[in-house]
């Protein structure tokens, strides 16, 4: 009996202390409504042969509606093909426990922006906002994400999430698999 009680106490403490502290970027309340957003975290990085891809994620709470904000940044000396989000775009999250969670893109269409920097690199920046259903919160807070599949307006792409990612760009270490576990509580 002592072992069972001790095990329960350990599990509760791991669950409470497993969450990271919230870093809020924006917290605004005005006559239009309430808006709160968390700090962006690197969840995907691939650098190979003068091409690089990054995905940053954050959470947004707009008038009580939880949203996952993903920002895609691609850099290359070659032309970067546009990818677009539309009302049919979706984000599929494959959890380690075998469940698949589907997040729907807001109806706002976006194909991003192409910028050229001083090093003669093309930079394409695309931002997507995906609605999180409150009934998915428990699964997302309790199981790591192994990969995501994104349905753009014309194609699908998959990104594998690592347990730990040390950025080649800035050396910062992040935990993409545990992003939801660590930060979803910030917008509850």
TrEMBL record:
<protein>
    <recommendedName>
        <fullName>Tissue inhibitor of metalloproteinase</fullName>
    </recommendedName>
</protein>
């Amino acid at each position: 009996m002592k072992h069972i009680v001790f095990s329960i106490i350990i599990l509760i403490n791991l669950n409470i202390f497993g969450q990271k502290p919230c870093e809020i970027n924006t917290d605004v309340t005005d006559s239009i409504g309430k808006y709160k957003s968390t700090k962006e975290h690197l969840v995907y990085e691939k650098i190979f042969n003068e091409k690089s891809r990054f995905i940053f994620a954050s959470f947004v709470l707009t008038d009580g509606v939880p949203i996952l904000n993903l920002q895609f940044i691609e850099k290359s000396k070659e032309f970067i093909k546009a990818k677009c989000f539309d009302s049919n775009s979706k984000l599929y999250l494959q959890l380690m426990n075998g469940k698949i969670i589907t997040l729907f893109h807001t109806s706002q269409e976006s194909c991003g922006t192409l910028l050229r920097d001083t090093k003669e690199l093309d930079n394409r920046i695309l931002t997507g906002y995906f609605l999180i259903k409150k009934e998915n919160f428990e699964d997302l807070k309790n199981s790591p994400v192994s990969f995501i599949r994104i349905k753009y307006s014309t194609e699908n792409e998959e990104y594998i999430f690592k347990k730990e990612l040390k950025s080649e760009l800035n050396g910062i270490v992040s935990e993409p698999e545990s992003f939801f576990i660590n930060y979803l509580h910030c917008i509850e």
